[in-house]
Structure formats: structure tokens, C-alpha cells
Amino acid sequence: MGYVKIQIKDVGSPEDLQRWEDHMLEKAKCWNNFCLGICAENEMRAVHVVKEGNSDIMYLTTLCEDCIKDTTANDILVNEKHLMVEAHQEKTL
């Protein structure tokens, strides 16, 4: 698994953050490869994302508030192993 570019669709709830930690069996941190890493634990957020170029599957991951705010200026690269499958969007035939 390598790094993929993601697009944020929505910021999740504190329950989403806890669900991600429970599923991944690790503490949330900012998984953005370009993050400066100067964020506090209370600045972590769960985010609903899609991989760039593939909006068929929604994922949940964690990022810091600064990286969430800065998405218009910079790309977000996350290792695929930190993406939790959220939901499959139904395609109509």
C-alpha cells in the first residue's frame, strides 16, 4: 500500500473519531504526509474522504485542523493503510 491523494468531503463527529480509533486499533493523528506535526491531540478530527479520481468509495481517516483548513492550497497524501472504508455508493444501472 502506498500514498494516495485524497479529497475531504466532510468533517466527522467525535464518535467518528472514536470509531476510527477502535477499528484501526491506534490513536488518531494527522496522517497527511505533508503535515508539520505541530498539532495538539484535541485538534485531531475524523474526516470523510474519497481518493482523488475515485469517488465511488467513501473513507474515514484522521487529520489535524490545520491540514483540514489548508486543503485549498496543498494536496493531502495519506497512506492507504490509514483509510477506513466508510460506505459504498450505489451505482444506478
How would you describe this structure to a colleague?
- The chain has one domain (3-60, 70-80).
- A five-stranded antiparallel sheet has the order 4-1-2-3-5.
- It contains two helices and five strands.
- It has 93 residues and is an alpha+beta fold.
- The model has no long low-confidence stretch (mean pLDDT 88).
The total strand number stands at: 5
User: Strands of the biggest beta sheet: in what spatial order?
Assistant: 4-1-2-3-5
What is the typical, i.e. mean, pLDDT? 88
Calculate the terminal CA-CA distance, rounded to whole Å: 31 Å
Bin the strand percentage.
Answer: 35-45%
Helix and strand composition category: alpha+beta
Give the helices and strands as they follow along the chain: EHEEHEE
How many domain regions?
A: 1
Question: What low-confidence regions span 5 or more consecutive residues with pLDDT below 50?
Answer: none
Spatial extent as radius of gyration: 13 Å
Shape: globular
The main pleated sheet reads as: 5 strands, antiparallel
Kindly state the percentage of residues in helix: 10-25%
Total DSSP helices = 2
Give a brief rundown of this model.
This protein is an alpha+beta fold.
List keywords for this structure.
alpha+beta, 39% strand, globular, 93 residues, 2 helices, 5-stranded antiparallel β-sheet
Layout of SSEs?
Layout: E1 3-11, H1 14-24, E2 44-51, E3 54-64, H2 65-69, E4 77-79, E5 84-88
Antiparallel strand pairs: 1-2, 1-4, 2-3, 3-5
